[in-house]
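Minutes, methods subgroup
Present: GH (chair), OT, SY

1. OT presented the first of two proteins processed in the latest run. Sequence and C-alpha cells recorded below as shown on screen.
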Amino acid sequence: MLARASMGKKRPYGRVSGGDSLFFLCGFNPRVKAMAAVKSVASAEMEKDVASDIKKRYGKILAPAAQREILNKRYVILIELEKARPIVPFLLSEEVHGSPGDWVVVENIDEAIS
C-alpha cells in the first residue's frame, strides 16, 4: 500500500486508477527498476471521520509514520498494489525525468523511455 498525503491536490491525487501500472525508480536515478499494478485507489479530503476510518481500515498495513503524516494533511490517496516485481531496467527520457515532484504521470510508458 502506498500512501500520499499533501496540503494540496498533488500528483497522483485524481490521476491514478485501478488497473494502471506504476513504475518505480531508485531515488533521483532515471533508471526504472520495478513495476506494480494498481489494484485499488482510495482518495479523500481529510476530515476527522475520514482519518479515523483510514486508521480503522488500513491501520494494520500502513506504517505508523504514514499514519501520522496523513493526519496532518488535507488530501490523502491510498494506492493498493499487486503483482509488484523487478523488471529489466530502462531509462526515462530526460524531459520526463526532469519533471518537478516525485510523481510523473504519462499516458503511455513507451513515450517516456529514453
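2. SY then presented the second protein from the same run.
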Amino acid sequence: MNHNGILTKLVKLNWCSLGIGAKTGNSKYKIPIWSHIFFKSVQIMALQNNSRRIMPYSFLQRLPKSGDATTTGFTLLFSPEPCFLVTSSAWAINPGICPTVSNNFQRWNQRPQALWWSAIGTLKLAPKRVLRSWAARRLRVAFVESLRKCGYSQDGVRISVNKKNGVFHQPSLKGTVQIFANNPSLIKMRNHDLMKQMDFTVQLLIKKLTETGSKNSRNRFDYSGRHQGKDKKRTF
C-alpha cells in the first residue's frame, strides 16, 4: 500500500475513534473544521511523497540572449528540471495557503514529459496591471508561435516531421520556463521585432534543453551545494 492509502486510512480511523458521523437519536455529530484541515494536510503530504521531486525556484537559469534587456524587452529563465515558479514560491513553502495545491501536484504527476512555462509582467515594465497583463499575453502568443515554427506544440511536444524515409518523431522538450516582461521597451515594440527576438530566444532555449536533457541532470547540478539552501531573491 502506498503512502496515500495508508494516510487516508489513518484519517478514517481517527474520525471513527472520535465518533464523527455517528448518529445518536435524531442528532448527528458534525465534522469539526480541524478535521478538514488535517485531512487536507494529509492529502498534500501523500501527494508530495508520491510525486516527482520539484526543484526550488533557484534552479532556474537565465538564458543568454543577443542584445540587452532594452532591445529584447523580456528575460527568460529555464531549467531542464521541474521547478517551482516565482508565482508559486509562496504555496511551495507553505502548501496550506493554497486550496488547489493537491490538484496542482496531481496535474504535475500526470504530465511528467511536458514543458511547463509561463509569462508574467513585472512592475519594472509598467505600474498599471492592465499593461503588464497585455505585455505578458504578447509574450505568450509569441512564445507559442516560435515553438510552432521550430516544430513543437505549445506544451513542448515534438510535432511529426515528414522526411524521405517516412515520418519520425524527435524528442520533446522537458523542463520549466518562465518569461518576464521587465522592460518598458516591450510596450512600444512592434510585433515583427518581438517575434524576431523570440524566435532567436526559443532556438537557443531548444538547444540548451536538448543538450542538458541528454545528460544526467544530477551530474550537472550539485544537490549538496547552494541550490539546497533558501531561494535567492531575484529582481526583474
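Chair's summary of item 2: Residues 6-31, 33-40, 42-50, 216-232 have pLDDT under 50 and may be disordered.
Next meeting: continue with the remaining queue.
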